[in-house]
Each structure stands twice: as structure tokens, then as C-alpha cells.
Amino acid sequence: MSFAFPKKEKLKSRKLFDTLFAQGKTITKYPVKLIYLKTELPNGVKIQTGVAVPKRSFKSAVKRNRIKRLLREAYRLNKPIVFNNSEGNFAFLFLYLGKEMPNYRTVEKSMRTILQKFNNTIIDE
């Protein structure tokens, strides 16, 4: 299992984003929230992932982009937790809920917890 985060695993479809917000299930571990949906994905990808930080909380694009980089990195390093234990295809969207700039340790800790909770919910279904 590689730790790469290739382009085909990035969530880009506007339609899928809207469907995620409308029908997706959520798991929250402050300051990160995961919205996920079981769906059909193109070209043999198991999971497509997107990250979002609200403009309302962080007016500065520099700060928003920094948080998005932290979220992507935390996901990239912890994605084997999900890839090795889940069946089916999913779309993920990670939302940052906090109001202040996080450090990497905080983001990574909540990311790991969320991915483990996700595994447990998928196993239970």
C-alpha cells in the first residue's frame, strides 16, 4: 500500500459534491468532520476524497489553503486504515470545523479517529 494521493483519488465532480452534501452520512471528531457516501466511481478507484474549509471561518485564502494541505497530508498518511479494511467505493469530504489555525498533530489525531470510526460503521452496516 503506497502513501501516494494521485489525481484520480481526488474528488472533483461537482455533481458528486452536491450529492454528498444532500445524502451523505457524517462522522465528526472536532475539529474535522467526514461526510461520506457509498457510490460508483470511475476507473477502478476505491475512494475519492475532497477537503473543504469554510470561507466564513477563515477569510484569508492563505490560511484556508494551509488547513487544506494539513487535511490532505493527514489523510494521505492514514488512508491505509480505510483502504485495507473497506469494501465498495466511497466519496469522502473532509470539512474543517474549527475557528482557529490548527497544528498538524491536532488534525492528524482527529483524522485517525475519524477513519477508525468510519471502518467500524462500515463493518456494522
TrEMBL record:
Catalytic activity: Endonucleolytic cleavage of RNA, removing 5'-extranucleotides from tRNA precursor
InterPro entries: Ribosomal_Su5_D2-typ_SF (IPR020568), Ribsml_uS5_D2-typ_fold_subgr (IPR014721), RNase_P (IPR000100), RNase_P_CS (IPR020539)
GO biological process assignments: tRNA 5'-leader removal
Coiled-coil boundaries: none
Keywords attached to this entry: Endonuclease, Hydrolase, Nuclease, RNA-binding, tRNA processing
Protein name (Swiss-Prot/TrEMBL): Ribonuclease P protein component
Subunit note: Consists of a catalytic RNA component (M1 or rnpB) and a protein subunit.
Function: RNaseP catalyzes the removal of the 5'-leader sequence from pre-tRNA to produce the mature 5'-terminus. It can also cleave other RNA substrates such as 4.5S RNA. The protein component plays an auxiliary but essential role in vivo by binding to the 5'-leader sequence and broadening the substrate specificity of the ribozyme.
Gene3D superfamilies: 3.30.230.10
Gene Ontology MF terms in the entry: 3'-tRNA processing endoribonuclease activity; ribonuclease P activity; tRNA binding
Keyword Methyltransferase attributed: no
Family: Belongs to the RnpA family.
Keyword Secreted listed: no
SUPFAM superfamilies: Ribosomal protein S5 domain 2-like
GO cellular component: ribonuclease P complex
UniProt-listed Enzyme Commission number(s): 3.1.26.5
